[in-house]
Here is the input.
Amino acid sequence: MSETRTDIGEIGEFGIIDRLTNGISLKNETSIFGVGDDAAVIDGGPDEFLLVSTDTLVEGVHFNLMYMPLKHLGYKAVAVNVSDICAMNGKAEQITVSIAVSNRFSLEALEELYAGIKLACLEYDVDLVGGDTTSSVSGLMIGVTAIGRVKKEEIVYRSGAKEFDLLVVSGDLGGAYMGLQLLEREKDVFKSNPMIQPDLDGHDYIMQRQLKPEARHDIIKYLKELGVKPTAMIDVSDGLASEILHLCKSSNVGCHVYDEKLPIDAKTSMTALDFNLDPSTCALNGGEDYELLFTIKQSDFEIIQSNPNFSIIGHITNVEDGVYFVDKSGSAVTLKAQGWKHF
Amino acid sequence: MSETRTDIGEIGEFGIIDRLTNGISLKNETSIFGVGDDAAVIDGGPDEFLLVSTDTLVEGVHFNLMYMPLKHLGYKAVAVNVSDICAMNGKAEQITVSIAVSNRFSLEALEELYAGIKLACLEYDVDLVGGDTTSSVSGLMIGVTAIGRVKKEEIVYRSGAKEFDLLVVSGDLGGAYMGLQLLEREKDVFKSNPMIQPDLDGHDYIMQRQLKPEARHDIIKYLKELGVKPTAMIDVSDGLASEILHLCKSSNVGCHVYDEKLPIDAKTSMTALDFNLDPSTCALNGGEDYELLFTIKQSDFEIIQSNPNFSIIGHITNVEDGVYFVDKSGSAVTLKAQGWKHF
Here is the structure.
C-alpha cells in the first residue's frame, strides 16, 4: 500500500469512482458500455441490450428509520434503480435484493421491508429473481440491482446531447428535499419533547416525494407514444445541477439553464420559504426527485412544449460556452453542483 | 406491522429467505428462473441465458481486516460470485461492485481493495461495468453482482439430480475453514502479546484457501472438454453438508455420502488434528472452499473416476431413502447441515 493517505471525504463520491475505475477497459464482446452512465449496457441478443444498475441505501447515511417506514424504504430502494433503467430509455424487468441487517431487526420488520419491495415490483412490473440476506454488525443496508432491456436503436446515453438541443425535465423539482427538511425538523421537535405530535398536515405532497419517490417509467412510455426519442438522458437523483453537469460533461457540450423555467410545485415553494430557503436552490441541489432530465432535438419542440408533463428549462450550447445558470434578473453564473456529499 | 416479534437469529438465513420470498411469482417472459439456485436465469437472446448472482461481504461478519488484506478481500468478493455463475455451468462476463465504507478508510485503502477486484477480473476474464460507492456509518461492506452467460442447452440447475446419479466434488475440502481457525488463533495470540510474530509457516496452502479462494471456472471448461454435463450442480460456499442438502431438496432425491471418500488435503487434516478437530467434520461443515459439487450420470463414471480433479463421494437415491452420511465404520447417520450461522 502507498504511504500517502488521501481522505475520502476530500475527493467526494465522483472523485473516488474516477480514481478507482481509472484504466478499466472492457474486454468481453458482450460488454457494450461500462462505468459512466445510469446503467451498464451488455449485449442481450440480436435486437436488444440489457441494462444493469445497482444502488445501495445505508441506514444513517441514506435513510433514518426514525421517520422512514420500512415499507417505504423497500419501495424506494427498488424505485431508485428502476429510475436508472428509465434513464437509459429502457424497461426494468428483474431485480435482485441484498440485505445486511443486525439482529435488532425482527423477521416481521424484514417482512415489512419486503412488502414495500414487492409493491414496487408490482407497480413497475418487475420480477424479484434473487438476492442475498446476511447479518450486519449494526444497522440496515439494502442493495438492489435492476436489470432492464431496451431495443438497440432506442437506447439513450448521457453522451448524445448536441448544440441547439433543448434541455427538458419531467415533473417538478425540490419536493423530496423539502420533505426531508420537514421530517428532520419534526424529528428534532420530537427529540426535545416526545409528547408533541408531528405537524405534517398539509404536507402530503412533499412528504410523498421524499418517502415514496416514483421512477418515471410512465414518462418513458409516454415519450415513445409521442414519438420523441431524447438525444441524451439522466435521472435526477443527486440534484438537477449535478445531473446537468454530468450530462454536459458526457456529451461534451455546454448549456444555459433558466431559473424562471424550473418547475417547482407551489407546495414545495411555500415550504422552502417557510424554512428561509430559496426554492430554486432546493430544486437545483435538493436531489432525490427521480425525475428525468433529457435533451431533445429542436424539431421536437412543439410536441414537448405544449405538454404539462414536461418543462423546457434550457438549451445546449457549444462546450466552449460553458454551463450557465441564468437567474431571474437575467444574470448568468457558472452552474455548480452541491449535490449530496455523504462522505 | 404484525405484533409478533420473531427473532431472525432463531430461523437463520435460509428460513428468512423462505419467508421473505414466499409467494413471489415471475411475470416477465424474460424471467426464466428466480430465487432458489446459485444464480437467477434470464433470457439473453435465441441461444443463451443470462445468469445473475449477487453476494455481499460485511466487515465483522464475513471478514476481519485484522488478518484479511484488502487486496485479498477484493479478489474474494469477485471470486465468490464467479463461483455462483460456474455452478450454473456458465461463464461470468461482467460484474458490478457496490461499496459502503466509513471515512476511517483512505482512498489508498480503497485502491488496494480495487487492485484485488481488478486482479480477479483479469483472472476470470470479467469486465467491471458499474457500481456504487457510498459511505457507511461504520465498517466496510462490499457487494458484487456477477452476470454470466450459458448456452440454453448447457445450463445446469440444482434440481436435475436423478436416482443412481453419482455425487462428485472438485478439489479438496475443509482447507478454507482450517485457514480461518489458524488466523483466529494467531489473532488471539497477537491480542495477548503483540510482540509475538504470527506463526503461519508451512500453512501456505490452507491460508490461501481461506484468503484467496478461487472460483473453479477451470473445472467448468474441463468438464466441457471431457464431454461431461452434470445433471445438477451447486458451489460449496456454506459447507458440503449444507450444499448436499440443498441439491437433494431441489432435485427431490436422497443420497448416500461416504466419509472415506471425502477429499481432504493432508495439510488440512494435520492442522485439524492439531486443533483437536475431526477433519471430516471440517470438510462437511467448514464452508468457503468454493469447490463445485455436482451429480453425473452413471455413464460418465469412467471419465470422472480416473481423474485426479474429481472425487466421487456418494450416489443419489430415491427421496424416501433420505440423505445419509456413511462413516468409516459403515454406520449411516442422517446428514445435517451446520453451515454458517451469521445471525
User: Anything to note?
Assistant: The CA atoms of residues 130 and 277 of chain A lie 43 Å apart. Confidence is low (pLDDT under 50) at residues 339-343 of chain A.
